[in-house]
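Input for the complex:
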Amino acid sequence: MIEINNLHKSFGSLEVLKGIDLHVEKGQAVVVIGPSGSGKTTFLRCLNILETPTAGTVTIDDHKADFSKPLPKKQITEFRKQSAMVFQHYNLFPHMTALENVMEGPVTVQKISKEAARKKAEELLAKVGLKEKMNEYPFQLSGGQQQRVGIARALALEPKVMLFDEPTSALDPELVGEVLQVMKDLALEGMTMVVVTHEMRFAKGVADEVLFMDEGRIVERGTPKDIFENPKEERTQQFLSLIQKADTI
Amino acid sequence: MMKFHRNGLAKMYLNSIFTNPERLERLLDIAQSSFLPLLEGAIQYTIPLTLISFTIGLMLATLTALARISTVKLFQNIARIYVSIIRGTPLLVQLSILFYGLPTVGITLEPFTAAILGFSLNVGAYASEVIRAAILSIPKGQWEAANTIGMSYSQSLKRIILPQASRVSIPPLSNTFISLVKDTSLASFILVTEMFRRAQEIAAFNYEFLLLYAQAGLIYWVLCFLLSLVQGRLEHRFDRYVSRA
Ligand SMILES: Nc1ncnc2c1ncn2[C@@H]1O[C@H](COP(=O)(O)OP(=O)(O)OP(=O)(O)O)[C@@H](O)[C@H]1O
Ligand SMILES: [Mg+2]
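Predicted:
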């Protein structure tokens, strides 16, 4: 479903991604972990071309983007439709209700009728447990509810891949569970997803593969069991002991 | 000395009104008979000038703001020069060039046309700075969220960014609008018979300058007051989606 070859990204002279290769099967959930500044967000954003990679290729389903040359706008738009991003800070549209947020993509981008879009949006909001909140504005929702609307909005376009960038790290601890549950359901339904998160329990329970990223490279990869219980690389061990320590404080 | 002299005059003016019933009656007569022509000037010219110029000006301002934030250097520079020229020269000079200057190069404009053109260009420049700032104040995440659901630049702008930017711009744009109402009095200078020019004409005839200019001022004030009420309503409407906490 996803095929990434030698992906590079620099901001000016700062090289943030130093050649990433990755292959994700349809229906797999991949969790990316790594220290702050290692390039996790940049990596996800490159898959949605929110950042334009400096070199390399990304193929999602049968859409291939080769970043060795500038891409035409149209191809970028087309490529973006293959995946959808869920942001750390939700980025809901504040001037639209929950329902309107979810309807926006189908109506404006896919040009499907308002009624059909509304029906679909209602279903999606019901799926993330927010049917009663559909007419509320984002400011009237809790962080966890906002993030679930964010997930419904991303799903509304029926992307082939869902990208999550620390979807729970801005949430109060008691709201993390409800968002992870929605993500877990998605994974069980067979959605292909790439998730940047430090929620170990989620990674252990849901991920097919865990990647440890450091300084713009994938340093180690394996099953959750391999990575969490038996990490081979020293940097992985250091990082894991750090976050485990933080967990027990 | 000067001050005493002025006070003396003021006293004389008031005295003449209150101690001389004929004088008072004459003033009331003039006030009454000039009210309708002034109001007519407002309805025929002041208000249309304001509304038309503001509408054209806003469109121009949006285009200019977009040019300023575009990545095309040429657009940026054209917009920058336009704004700089309009903001750096007096409105009266701009109107004079349009009406009295352009005929020299063979372009003759009707007074009303010249006024519309001048005021639109003026609003376009000032409001473009407001709109630009409002667009830039919308968090980058909003553009990204729009992009990630597949929206093009123009769709993002129309559906996501501008609606939010308009909320931010209402107070400063209302200022521009209210200034415009008052600035239309400058059209008197290029022979548009709007409200202030009527006041001048009537006063030139009966010499009651204080009365007529005060009357015109009062009508401007009422117009601006009504506008500030509209502004309040608009702000309230746009605030429905932000927390009032
Ligand atoms: N737009 C940008 N311009 C310049 N540098 C950037 C930009 N975005 C990210 N960087 C730099 O790239 C590096 C990687 O950033 P990135 O946000 O991808 O890290 P991260 O792994 O997601 O970190 P965190 O865990 O803190 O979210 C950092 O050094 C950051 O400063
Ligand atoms: Mg990050």
